[in-house]
TrEMBL record:
Keywords: Lectin. This is Galectin. It comes from Ploceus nigricollis. PROSITE patterns: GALECTIN. One of its GO terms (cellular component) is extracellular space.
């Protein structure tokens, strides 16, 4: 478990940029964006080799203990032992995830007006966090 941020206050039109290092022997890492640890609007989970997925980004949402349907992205711009820069742009009805050379959107299934919570877990070391 990496750092946990609360009271971020990210609203539509704002972005959160995350930079960090991926472990050389990484299996997977997670970034959660939501209201708190129980209401996760975006569970962002790049998997090098975990849960039967290889080089796949799996996204989901969680309401208390209930997970939604998994969304998979085939584009995988991460490298073990490399650095990563990921930007989450909050829109009215979804979140746009900006990766190196690729972007995709994930719906705001929980209809969160504000994203206050962010955490990282797994084989990722957070180096910087910035928002605008």
């Amino acid at each position: 478990q990496g750092p946990v941020c609360t009271n971020l206050g990210l609203k539509p039109g704002q972005r959160l940029t995350v930079k960090g290092k991926i472990a050389p022997n990484a299996k997977s890492f997670v970034m959660n964006l939501g209201k708190d640890a129980t209401l996760v609007g975006l569970h962002f989970n790049p998997r090098f080799d975990a849960h039967g997925d290889v080089n796949t980004i799996v996204c989901n949402s969680k309401k208390v203990e209930e997970w939604g349907a998994e969304h998979r992205e085939a584009v995988f711009p991460f490298q073990k032992g490399g650095t990563a820069e990921i930007t989450f742009a909050v829109n009215q009805n979804d979140v746009t995830v900006h990766l190196p050379g690729h972007q995709f959107t994930f719906p705001n299934r929980l209809n969160l007006p504000v994203f206050d919570y962010f955490d990282t877990q797994g084989d990722f070391t957070l180096q910087s966090l910035s928002w605008e």
